[in-house]
TrEMBL record:
Keyword line: ATP-binding, Cytoplasm, Ligase, Nucleotide-binding, RNA-binding, tRNA processing, tRNA-binding
Family named by the database record: Belongs to the TmcAL family.
EC assignment: 6.3.4.-
Binding site for ATP: 9-22, 103, 168, 193
InterPro entries hit by this protein: Rossmann-like_a/b/a_fold, tRNA(Met)_cyd_acetate_ligase
Main localization of the protein described in the UniProt heading: cytoplasm
Job description of the protein: Catalyzes the formation of N(4)-acetylcytidine (ac(4)C) at the wobble position of elongator tRNA(Met), using acetate and ATP as substrates. First activates an acetate ion to form acetyladenylate (Ac-AMP) and then transfers the acetyl group to tRNA to form ac(4)C34.
PANTHER family per UniProt: TRNA(MET) CYTIDINE ACETATE LIGASE (PTHR37825:SF1)
Class in the EC hierarchy, top level: ligase
Catalysed reactions, as listed in the record: cytidine(34) in elongator tRNA(Met) + acetate + ATP = N(4)-acetylcytidine(34) in elongator tRNA(Met) + AMP + diphosphate
Pfam family, one: HIGH_NTase1
Name of this chain's protein: tRNA(Met) cytidine acetate ligase
Localization: Cytoplasm
């Protein structure tokens, strides 16, 4: 009898008590035998370096109710919400998941279903409203939200809709849209987020804080003791291990010297070829890098109403990693399942089911040649250099030397 798998889409930046609850509830709610996580690599959806690398975060996952960890390729992990969702949902479908479960502020799957139906029925009106807002100089995410609000006002008052101004609701909506687009047979389930919201600061005395709040609290003090109440012991142990090796925790402050060097070396002409760099913003980046000694100064110089902070950061991630428009065109669809780690139950599932997967499982990077996989390896090396902190050996080529992690 086939083991029943539920999929989750995660970043674990870092894994905290709320994440443990989500994975546990995903398994219970869907009556699954195991949980499969599609996890972003070393650079993330909001255009940021990860706090610690993908191997440390995969270890956290395997010690906290997750049985298999597949890496979401760089192409999708650093994309805007619709493409991020598209790549992740396709991987869960390829891995034979019977359901997928996401955390949301809404907590009701019916609200998302109603919103999908509404936008399908009002597609022309919605798209026209988006174009009008963008033409007026409004950022694309804000334009989407305003268009959604406009079509929502015309619907029946007794129909519950998802609030798409909330960050996790937005991602959840796109997960469901991606599943609908590929005609997935996976059941969609949502778990209401517990405790802190996405952008909230970590509050002393509480057990659950957002990953954003945890990182902010740490960077203000550089003391892990300030965040131990919000994270499980395995996360604390792995973060302590990371710190004792002399590595820096990933942040734009850490990576800015590298970024600044690349922008000044390449100049506007080369920057123009980088994915998402558009409308002459490369000139502004070059001028800002010439005079800005810190990442905060750089961002205050280039930020505008037209471009959100996140959109600019995605451009900068692509500049840092040398990810061009031409490279992106070669990676339209996920083409493999990169295995980062598995529990013993996950190992059994792979042994029984991988022959039925619609994509090959990659456990040895050297075994296949794929432009998307090569991009993931490049991003790992860039990340290793940025976090090395000029101390000790830099782990270049770790993708080739690191076998999948085997958990309990």
């Amino acid at each position: 009898m086939k083991l029943k798998a539920t999929g989750i889409i995660v970043e674990y930046n870092p894994l905290h008590n709320g994440h443990v609850y989500h994975a546990e509830q995903a398994k219970i709610t869907t009556e699954a035998d195991l949980v499969i996580a599609v996890m972003s690599g070393n650079f993330l959806q909001r255009g940021e370096p990860a706090f610690v690398d993908k191997w440390a975060r995969a270890q956290m996952a395997l010690s906290s109710n997750v049985d298999i960890v597949f890496e979401l390729p760089y192409r999708f992990a650093t994309a805007h919400a619709p493409l991020f969702a598209k790549g992740a949902v396709q991987l869960l479908q390829a891995a034979g998941c019977d359901a997928f479960c996401f955390g949301s502020e809404e907590g009701s799957i019916d609200a998302f279903t109603n919103s999908l139906t509404l936008l399908s029925e009002t597609e022309e009106q919605y798209e026209a409203a988006v174009k009008q807002a963008v033409a007026a100089g409004i950022s694309y995410p804000k334009a989407l939200n305003e268009a959604y609000a406009a079509v929502s006002n015309d619907t029946k008052a007794n129909v519950k809709l998802a609030d798409l101004s909330k960050p996790n609701n937005i991602l959840g909506f796109h997960y469901m849209k991606a599943a609908e687009d590929i005609r997935s047979n996976m059941k969609a389930v949502t778990i209401k987020r517990m405790g802190a919201n996405y952008h909230d600061d970590a509050e002393e005395g509480k057990r659950i804080a957002s990953a954003t709040g945890i990182r902010k609290s740490f960077f203000e003090t550089a003391a892990l003791s300030k965040v131990t109440g919000f994270i499980p012991p395995i996360t604390n142990n792995l973060l302590e291990r990371w710190q004792t090796t002399g590595k820096s925790f990933g942040s734009w402050q850490t990576f800015y010297p590298q970024l600044r060097f690349i922008i000044l070396r390449d100049g506007p002409e080369r920057l123009r070829s980088i994915a998402d760099v558009t409308e002459g913003i490369e000139n502004l980046f070059f001028k800002a890098a010439q005079k800005s000694d810190t990442f905060e100064d750089f961002m205050s110089t280039v930020k505008s109403k037209r471009y959100t902070w996140t959109r600019i950061q995605r451009m900068l991630v692509h500049i840092l990693n040398g990810f061009t428009y031409e490279m992106r065109e070669q990676m339209e669809m996920p083409s493999y399942l990169r295995l980062l780690g598995m529990s013993q139950k996950g190992r059994s599932y792979l042994h029984e089911q991988k022959k039925n997967f619609s994509l090959p499982v990659v456990s040895k990077v050297a075994a296949i040649k794929d432009p998307s996989l090569q991009m993931d390896c490049t991003a790992s090396d860039i990340y290793a250099i940025g976090t090395a902190n000029n101390k000790g050996h830099i782990e270049i080529g770790k993708d080739y030397s690191s076998p999948p992690i085997i958990g309990k």
